[in-house]
Amino acid sequence: MNQAAKLAWRAAETPAKIADALRSLADEYPITEGGRGLKLKFREVKDSETLCRVLRNRGEVTIEYSTFTGALRGVGSALAKLDGEERTPFRKLGIMLDVSRNMVMRVEHFKKWLRRLALCGCNEVLIYSEDTYELEDEPFFGAYRAPYTLEELQEMDDYADVLGIELVGCIQTLGHLEQVLQHRHYASMTDSERILLVDSVESEALIRKMISFWNKALRSRRIHVGMDEAHGLGRGLHQTLHGAEGETSIMNRHLKVVSNICKENGLAPMIWSDMYFRMTNKAHEYYDYTSPFPAGLKNEIDPDTILVYWDYYHEETSDYRKMIHRHRELGKEPVVGSGIWTWTRMWYDHQKTITTALPCIDVCRQEKITDLFFTMWGDDGAYCNYDSSLAGIVRCADLAYGCRDENDTADRFAAVCDADYGANVAAGELQMQLTDKITVLPSMIFWDDPLLGKYFDSCKRANPEFDLIYLDQLDDVLCRIMPSAEDNAAGDIGYAVDLIKFLIKKVELRGALEAAYDLGDRLALRELVTTTIPAAIAALVEVDAGFRRNWLKSAKAHGLERIQVRNAGQMARLEELTIRIREYLDGTVERIEELDERLPLCAEPEWMNRYKEVSGGSWIV
C-alpha cells in the first residue's frame, strides 16, 4: 500500500484560501505548516476547465491549478506521489449521499468524507433528506429518525466551504414522503401513502417550512426539491376532493408553487426529471426514447427549474446520449446523476458502478454536460458498509478527470483513504449474474428465511447449480481479501470476511437441508442440528457485531434498530429450524411443512431485492 508523502508549506507562499484548506486537511494527513517534507508550492493558471498539474523537482512539488478544486486535487496527487496533468470539464462534480433510509451520517464522519472528496477534486455534495432534518413546530417531522439540527448542518456547511465543497439540500416536496405521512398528524395533507396532497394549504405551509430550513442551513443558493416517482399522483385524496385530473397539469401546478417558494427564499430549484418522461407513455417508463412529449409541455414546465436526469442502470453510451438529447427537447440543459452502487448491496459494488458510470461520464464529457454527481442510495435500510464506497468515489472522480489507469487510482486511494483499493474492490464481488434479469444478491441470501428458502429456491429455478457456482465465487473472494482483514480505514475488510463466511454457511446449510430432507437422510439432518446450524448462528453473531460496530462509528444510532431486528429474526428462524428438525427426527411431527411447499424447478424465477420479499411468505414486516 502506497504510503502518503509528507508535505510542507509556508503561509507566505500559499494563497490564503488554500492555506485554510491545508490546515483542515492536516487534521488527518501529513501536511504541515513550516515543517519537514516535500515543499508545496501553488501556481494559478488560466484554463477553461478544472486543471490540475503536479510538477516535482528536488524536494519540491509545484501544483498548477485553474480552480480551487483543482488545487486540492493536486494536493491529493502529491500525497499519492502522482505527477502530471489532469483536467475535467465538469464545473460541478460530486456525490449525493442518502441520509433518509435509516442511516444519518455523524457530523464528524461526514467531515472525514469531505476531506477525501476534496482531495479527489470533488466540489459538491447533495444531502438527500426526506425528513431527517428538524422543522420548527413540527415534532412529528423526522421523529425517531435522528434528524439533523440546523446547527449540525451549518457546522457541516462551514467545514465543506473551507474545502471548496458546496453542500446542497436534496429533499422531497411531493413523493417519497411515506416516512412523514406515516404520522396521523399529516393525514389531511396526504394524497396517498407516499405522496403529499397537491393544492392543499397545509401542504404548502409544510413545504414553506422545509425550504426555509435549508435556506438557513446552507450557503448554497441551489436546492433539489425532488418530485420523482410520484406514481399515482392525484389518484388518492386529491381525486376525492377535486375529481379526476391529468398528472401533467397537477405536476406543473405544484412545481410552480414549490418553485415560487424557492425563489422567495433566494434559491434556484432542481427536480428529478422522470415524471415528465413517464407521463408520455402508457407504461409509465422513464427511459422512453420515442414517445412524443405532449403539445405545449416544454412551455408549461417552470422555466426557472433545472431538470436532473438520473440513470444508474444503462451500460451503453447510446442510452445516455438519447436521454440527454430528450431533455434538450424540453428546452432544458440537464444536470446528470449517475450512481455509485450502494443500494441493495451489503458492500459497494464496483463492477456495477463502473459498467454504468463510465459510459455516463464519457457521454457527459462529449455532450458538454457541466454538472455531474453520483448518487449513493440506501434503499431498503442503508445496510451497505458505506465507507466501502469510498473506493467508488475515488475511481469515479479519477474517470471524471480523465484518469483511466486503475493503478493510479489505487495509489490515490491508499494515500487519501489509507486503505487497500484492490481488497476493497474484491470484497464487493458478492453478486452473481444468473440470467439477464436475475442477479444473486448477498443481502437477499443473508435474510432469506431458512425454512421457506424463497430466494434460494428462486435462484435454483434460474440455475439448478447456482449454489455450487456461488460458493466457489465466495470462496475465491474470501481468499483474496483475507490478507487485508485488519484494514478498516475505508471499508471494514474484517467485517466483509465475517459476512462472506456467514453467506457460505447459509448457502451450504440450505443446500444440505433440502437434500437431506428430500432423501429422508436422518443422519445428515442430525448433523445439521448438531454442527451446521450452530456454526451458522455463530457466524451470524460475528456479522451482527461487526455491523453494529461500523454503524455506530459512522452513523447516528437511530436506524440501527431496523437491521438488528432483521438479524435477530434470522437468528430466531435458524433456531426454529433446529427445533423443527428435532421434532421431525423424534416423530413429534410427520413432516416439515415449509420444506414440502417448494415451487417446482419449472416455475419462473422471481426477482427479489427487498427484505420483506424474502423474510416471509407475506409482506407483513
Key descriptive features of the protein:
alpha/beta; 6-stranded mixed β-sheet; 621 residues; single chain; globular; 46% helix
Give a verbal description of the structure.
The structure is a single chain. This protein is α/β, with parallel strands linked by helices and 621 residues long. The chain is built from 23 helices and 18 strands. An 8-stranded parallel β-barrel has the order 7-8-9-12-13-14-15-16, surrounded by 5 helices. It has a 6-stranded mixed β-sheet with strand order 2-1-3-5-4-6, covered by helices on one side. Helix 3 links the parallel strand 7 and strand 8 (124-128). The mean pLDDT is 97.
Summarize the structure.
Helix content is 46%, strand content 13%.
Would you report the number of β strands?
A: 18
Radius of gyration: 26 Å
Q: Kindly report how far apart the N and C termini lie.
A: 44 Å
Spatial strand arrangement across the major sheet: 7-8-9-12-13-14-15-16
Number of helices: 23
**Mean of residue pLDDT?**
97
Q: Rough shape?
A: globular
Which class of secondary structure composition applies to the elements?
alpha/beta
Helix content: 40-55%
Report the portion of residues in β strands: 5-15%
Q: Main β-sheet: number of strands, strand sense, barrel status? A: 8 strands, parallel, barrel
As residue ranges, the low-confidence spans are none
